[in-house]
Amino acid sequence: MADDFDNLTPGLKELNHLDDSKHTLYVGVIHATGDRTVEYNQMIAEVQNNGATINPVNGKYLTLPMPIAGKRHAREINGLFFHMSKNGTPTLAKNENGKLVIYFILKLQVKIPARPFISLTQEKCLDLAEPILHEGVVDILLGDSTAGEVLTKVGKTIAVLMKKQMAEMTATPNAPATERNKGFNHPLFDTGALQRSIDWVVV
Q1: What is the pTM of this model?
Q2: Helix, strand, coil proportions of the chain in percent (round to 5)?
């Protein structure tokens, strides 16, 4: 009769799955979004989190598009020519109906400052995960939950935290040219693709 109420034995077995290799929790940039692959989103996330210095590979300059260029490359636009602006900034421009129109700003190097939304999430996630895990241990022992369900709660909480860190990462604003292209100034938001790529999975 006592066996009918014995949740402890299967609960202890299930509890071991929080420590063994049966389940692994992944939280971060794990989805493709639109035409962006998972690998591309992960590269963007790493660059934003750690910062980076970008140098030209195939020429002297990096080409930074103005809004009029859209998503086109310089080679896709006919009639462009090198132009030095009044303030000494090299550009690629075009004569349109007698008016000089700048399509690209040219840079010898671009430095992207670190905006460590992933690192800050790592620093804060343990404080959020601990109470969920403690409650989950009790639920598992009572037979009311599984290791996978507990890890899912942890993953969802950390994913929300990471998106929150992105939203709050405004101390280092976009460069003026980037702000003009986007139409607003938030360094970790443009189309929302990076934020949408953040999720969790328990395997």
Answers
A1: 0.78
A2: 45, 20, 35
